[in-house]
Amino acid sequence: MIDFQSPEYNETVELRRKILRKPLGIDFSEDQLAKEGSDIHLGLYLHNVLVACLILTPEPEGKIKMRQVAVDAEFQGKGIGKKMIAFAEQWSSDNNYTYMHCNARKTAVPFYLQSKYIIVGDTFLEVNIPHLYMYKKLS
Q1: I need a surface site. Which of 14, 35, 42, 48 has the fewest CB within 10 A?
Q2: Is 2 part of a structural domain of the chain?
Q3: Interstrand relation of 129-137 and 99-105 (parallel, antiparallel or unpaired)
Q4: Is-contact 129 83, C-beta < 8 A?
Q5: Structural domains counted in the chain
Q6: CATH number of the domain that 117 lies in?
Q7: Are 75 and 120 contacting, i.e. CB atoms less than 8 angstroms apart?
């Protein structure tokens, strides 16, 4: 768990910027980052280096949105993203959330399908790239 506006939070912003934003030629606005104060920030460190992070945004009726999932390029394909999601799901379930959802980049859909997420609806554009809405009921 990472506190909002802590040095560790700033590391997550930099990782998300590097992995999710810079390749698209976009950045976070101050307003976007300011809205993250009520979110749950998770990070995974190896040898004191942040290698993965994600954000959970609580919603009404037992729902929680997973977003901004980022794994450093050097560590992708090694199961770290799956471990992060499994931890996020367990934390969410332990905290009485029953439904996790996300807007998955189309390129990440196979990754989420492996974790038993279900696609609902058609492809849509978010940050100018194709996404699909996906969800999973938590036990």
Answers
A1: 48
A2: no
A3: antiparallel
A4: no
A5: 1
A6: 3.40.630.30
A7: no
Q: Which of 134, 127, 130 is nearest to 23 (CA)?
A: 127
pLDDT in tens, the chain (139 residues): 999 999 999 999 999 999 999 999 899 989 999 999 999 999 999 999 999 999 999 999 999 999 999 999 999 999 999 999 999 999 999 999 999 999 999 999 999 999 999 999 999 999 889 999 999 999 7
Quote the tokens at residue 114.
Answer: 């492996």
Helix and strand element counts for the chain (H, E): 4, 6
Query: What domain range includes position 30?
Result: 7-137
Q: Which residue has the tokens 């996906």?
A: 134
User: Which pair of structure tokens corresponds to residue 115?
Assistant: 């974790």
Q: Count of alpha carbons within 13 Å of 99, Cβ hemisphere only?
A: 8
pLDDT score of 139: 79
**HEC string for 44-61:** EEECCEEEEEEEEEECCC
Q: Return the pLDDT at 119.
A: 97
Distance CA 16, CA 10 (A): 10
